[in-house]
Every structure is written in structure tokens, then in C-alpha cells.
Automatic annotation (TrEMBL):
<feature type="domain" description="NAD-dependent epimerase/dehydratase">
    <location>
        <begin position="3"/>
        <end position="270"/>
    </location>
</feature>
<dbReference type="InterPro" id="IPR036291">
    <property type="entry name" value="NAD(P)-bd_dom_sf"/>
</dbReference>
<dbReference type="Pfam" id="PF01370">
    <property type="entry name" value="Epimerase"/>
</dbReference>
<dbReference type="InterPro" id="IPR001509">
    <property type="entry name" value="Epimerase_deHydtase"/>
</dbReference>
<keyword id="KW-0520">NAD</keyword>
<protein>
    <recommendedName>
        <fullName>NAD-dependent epimerase/dehydratase domain-containing protein</fullName>
    </recommendedName>
</protein>
Length: 352
């Protein structure tokens, strides 16, 4: 199997590459990432170094990394023409809800133009009767649900009222993929990820940022006075879901009009167990003390500040994963304490 993974230096991308090397014999992977400085580049370099180590342990597999931007159409076209992938996993995107409020251009470039380039490259992979891309898997987000009152969130729900540009770009990805699936019969699957966390994760995420600030003796701000609820999903559960989806492309079929029925699916990947932010902070601090990241007598109350909701945020995220369970036979199950314990132990090791 030949796989292109965009965003390969990212949190989910790098962990997916490691999983493919481990469980797909003789896999050939081409990773693309622009390694931008939206957050600390050293974390991205660490992830890439872990991939390099893993490649040496799996001599039948191959890995090539290209530092580049998916918004660079000539580069993407060249990569597809030369590599001729069977599967494309598009995880490259400008991430972050709040950053989209101050830097909208970055989201248009990566999440819209970049994704369009990926879709076009998939389309032209079928030129001249070639077999082409068998499955396009791409990252969507739980943010597409906006302020939907109905929970848990189902992929059957209407999602046309985004509360951030980031969410709007992710919903746009789903619409664009559907159009290309219909027009060009490209099997595509969108994955709505719910608050992904774990070792070597994104430093801009709350659990990582809280830890950095607590170590420095700074105050952490807990939004919506701690009443937000998040469906925290451990990275291994996310990767397990992606890995299963890769191997099961939507089937091609023809409708009564003789035209393709779009081979198109969207799934939630979440833990289906929303946790209050205050409870999350409590578990995080207990695990940081247990791992020796913070001393046992650390005064957490003196370093916590409850503040109002931020623009672009939503009060709750909660995944209905019944479609994923039915089609893929999988439901995320890592408990928040177990996941934060693994993060705290990794953090202790990484900073030392």
C-alpha cells in the first residue's frame, strides 16, 4: 500500500505514520508538512525523529518526508504524479479555533485552497484510465456542530451554523469532498475529531498549555468558569479509528439515473463521555503530581482563575459514535485519567 499523509509532522499525522509502519507490512509512506511555527517546532521535529527511528525497525517499509505546503499546487501535482498513492490521508490544516479569529488568511490558504489541491490531485490520479486513489480520508472537526443544542452530536445533524471560521472551513471540506465524490466517483471519508490529547500533543491545547504554565508558576485561565464540557479523545483511539477507516473505503455504486452515487462517508471519532473542564483540571493536576512533574505540595488554587467564555468556543462537545461502531467495529474507550497519566509521564521524560 502506498499512502500519502499530509500534516505528517502534526500530532495525529505522526502517530498515524507510526501505526502504519507497525501494522501495514511493506507500506510506502510519503509525508508532507510545512512545519510552520504556529506552535513550538521542536515538538514537530521530535515526532519526525520518532518516525525515523520506527522506519529503521521496519526494514520492509519506506518513508519519505517532504517539507512543503499543500497550498502549493505544482508541488502537490508533482508528488501525486510521481508517487501514485493508493490512499491519501489529509490531516494538514491550520488548527485552532481562537487563532482563526485573528489570522483568517492562514485557514483559507491551508484548509480551503490546500484541500482543493488535494481533491484535484485525487481527481487527476484517474487520468488516462489509471487506477487512481482508492480512498481519500480527511480530517474534519467536532467544531462543525457549532452551538447545536442536541447532544450527543450525530453526523445526521444539521451543521450549517458555525461559530468560527475554523469550523466553517472544516464543514467546507466535507461539502467539497462530497461534490468530488459525486462528480468523479472518488471514495472519500471525513472524520470529525473530538478534542484529541496525549503525549507529544499540540502545545496550544489546554492540557499542554496548563502544564507549561503551572511549571512556571503562572496562572491558568479556565474558560466559561469551568462549566465547558469536552469529549476528550486519546490519541491512540483516534489513530485506531483512522487506521480502520483507511482500510474500508465507501463502496462505489450507480444510481437509477445511471450516475455515480457518491462513495462518501462522515464519522465522529470521540470518547462519547464529556468531562467538565474543572474535573479535567483536577485529574490533570493529580497526574502531574503523581508523575513528579509538580511537587506534592503545589498550591493549585492559587494558580487557577475562572474566566468567561471565549469567542468561537462552544459549551459542550459530545460524540455519537454509533456509525463508527457499526461500520468499523470500534469505539474509543481510553479513560481521561489513563490518557492524562500517559501524557504526564511523557512530559516528565520529555522536559528532562
Amino acid at each position: 500500500m502506498k499512502v500519502i499523509v499530509t500534516g505528517a509532522a502534526g500530532f495525529i499525522g505522526a502517530n498515524l505514520v507510526l501505526r502504519l509502519l507497525k501494522d501495514e507490512p511493506n507500506v510506502k509512506i510519503l509525508g508532507i508538512d510545512n512545519v510552520n511555527n504556529y506552535y513550538d517546532v521542536s515538538i514537530k521535529e521530535f515526532r519526525l525523529s520518532e518516525i525515523e527511528k520506527s522506519v529503521k525497525e521496519h526494514p520492509g517499509c519506506s518513508w519519505k518526508f517532504i517539507k512543503g505546503n499543500i497550498a502549493d499546487k505544482p508541488l502537490i501535482d508533482k508528488i501525486f504524479a510521481e508517487f501514485q498513492p493508493d490512499v491519501v490521508v489529509n490531516l494538514a490544516a491550520q488548527a485552532g479555533v481562537r487563532y482563526s479569529i485573528t489570522n483568517p488568511g492562514a485557514y483559507v490558504e491551508s484548509n480551503l485552497i490546500g484541500f482543493y489541491n488535494i481533491l484535484e490531485a485525487c481527481r487527476h490520479s484517474y487520468d488516462n484510465g489509471t487506477e487512481g486513489v482508492k480512498h481519500l480520508v480527511y480530517a474534519s472537526s467536532s467544531s462543525v456542530y457549532g452551538s447545536n443544542k442536541k447532544v450527543p452530536y450525530s453526523t445526521e445533524d444539521k451543521v450549517d451554523k458555525p461559530v468560527s471560521l475554523y469550523a466553517a472551513t472544516k464543514k467546507s471540506n466535507e461539502l467539497m469532498a462530497h461534490a468530488y465524490s459525486k462528480l468523479y466517483n472518488i471514495p472519500s471519508t471525513g472524520l470529525r475529531f473530538f478534542t484529541v490529547y496525549g503525549p507529544a500533543g499540540r502545545p496550544d491545547m489546554a492540557y499542554f498549555g496548563f502544564t507549561d504554565k503551572l511549571i512556571k508558576g503562572e496562572t491558568i485561565e479556565i474558560f466559561n468558569y469551568g462549566n465547558c464540557k469536552r469529549d476528550f479523545t486519546y490519541i491512540d483511539d483516534i489513530v485506531e479509528g483512522v487506521w480502520r477507516v483507511i482500510r474500508k473505503a465507501p463502496e462505489k455504486s450507480v444510481g437509477e439515473d445511471g450516475l455515480p452515487v457518491p462513495p462518501y462517508k462522515v464519522y465522529n471519532i470521540g470518547n462519547s463521555k464529556p468531562e467538565k473542564l474543572l474535573d479535567f483540571v483536577q485529574i490533570l493536576q493529580e497526574e502531574l503530581v503523581r508523575a513528579g512533574v509538580l511537587p506534592e505540595d503545589y498550591d493549585f488554587e492559587a494558580h487557577k482563575k475562572l474566566v468567561p467564555m471565549q469567542p468561537g468556543d462552544v459549551p459542550v462537545t459530545f460524540a455519537d459514535t454509533s456509525a463508527l461502531e457499526q461500520d468499523m467495529g470500534f469505539k474509543p474507550s481510553t479513560s481521561l485519567r489513563e490518557g492524562l497519566r500517559r501524557f504526564a509521564e511523557w512530559y516528565k521524560w520529555f522536559v528532562e
